[in-house]
Structures are given as structure tokens and as C-alpha cells.
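Researcher: Please predict.
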Amino acid sequence: MTDKKKDILRIIIFIVLANLPMFIGGILFESESKAYSLMSYIAPYSPAIAHIITRIITKDKAPMYLRINFKGNKKYYLMGIIYALITSVLEIVAVMAVASGYEITLNFGKREFAFLLFLIALGIVGFYILIGEEFGWRAYLTPKLEGLMPEPLALIVSGIIWGMWHAVPIANGLNFGFGYWGEPYTGFLVMCISCIFYGSMLTYLTKKTKSIYPASICHSCVDVIRTISVIVGDNPEFAEILEKNSFKYCVFAMIPDILIGAVFFVILTYEYISNRKKKA
């Protein structure tokens, strides 16, 4: 078997294993059951587990990106945190756009600033929660795809696979809720677009440092820091607004990720083309 065929087989095995907990939890168990809760805890680590099992089964010796590589790469670690802060601020703007017609009081005093610092610290310390995804998507799937196709296409395919990994939870109402137009397929589409460009930013951090930790910290900070939008928009009607416009809110909230991620997609594409020209 050629190396290319081996990598195709590895990708197939990895995708099946990474999606298994999602399908088992979402299809076989009720969302209120203990079994479903257990699978929801396992699912975030399923890409990492799939990476390890695939590596063992196929005797893969590819780089694992497990070194911290902090020396000389501090700016990339910091970049991930700044990215999380910027997208969180822009998310608040998105909330305001979604909530047009409502009066939402924006509060940002000492309490909110202290809470923001706490969230940043929590995001950094809690990177291990998202390391399961980054060890799978960025350290294994994306490099494998890059060996089979041009890097820009690999970013797109990797993003689609990552996006569709959320398919069962989205169908069960996670992220976008229920009752929106084209449910759940429009939810799948939006998630895939978001994952393509957000994944480009995370891939950029991984490539520059040859480590999964900057991307893991960034991913963790994004998920944690964005809760500040609920604190800043402290209004009794706020929760009701989000519930009624769940899909609309989520789409608006993803726009900053998509726009900033598109910049990194262009940067990686430019670097890929430049490297190709140098080799030629």
C-alpha cells in the first residue's frame, strides 16, 4: 500500500472514531439520560482518542505536536488570548445588532473587569478541556489532508469535517436551538463555514509553533471569555431575546470568527503559494 493510500485509510479511520461518541450519544440515548451525559463528556476528547487509536492501528509515526515550544513563540500564545478577547467584544456588538428594538443596558465597571480577568485565567488554565479537539483536528487531521491536497483545500475539508462533527448535537438543538428556517441543515452549513475559518486561525497557531497548546489555549479562552457578553448585557429581557433568536444570535456571533479567521486563511494560502514558487 502506498503512503498516500495509507493516509487516506488513516483519515477514514480517524473520522469514524472521532464521530462515534457523537452518534452513539445523540442517536441511541435520550438527552436527559445518564448515558447521554457520559457521552457528552467523552465527545470533546473523541478527536484525541481517535488520533491515538488511529496512530496505533496504522503504526503512524507522524509528528504529534505535543511539545510546548514556548521559547520564541510567546507572541503566538498571546495572539490566541487576544483573538478571544477581540471576538468576545465583537460578539457583544453582534448581540446588540440582533437585539435591535430592545433596550439593553451595557455594564462594564470594576466588577465586570475583574470577572473578565478571571475568565482569561480560567480559559488559560482550562486549555486541557479543548486539547482533545486540537490534538485531533489540528495535530492529525489537517496535516494528513495537507499531504493529499493543496493546503487551502485541506483547510476547507478539515473545517467541513470538524463542522459536521457537531451535526448530531445541532440536530438535538445545541448551538442554534429549534424552529429556524431550514433546520437543521442551515445549522450544519453555518457551523461548517465557521469551522473552516476559525479552524484556519487555530491551524495558523499550530503551524507557527509546531505545538497544539497555543490553539488549545485560544480555543478554551474563546469558549470561556464569550460568557462576558451575558454579564455586560445585564438585562432581564436578555435571556428571552437570545432564546427567541437563538439561530439569528449564533449566526451574528460567528461573524467575527469568520471574518478574522478569513484573514488567517488568506495568510496561510499566501504562504502556501509562496513556498510552492520557491520550490519551483
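Model: The chain has a mean pLDDT of 86.
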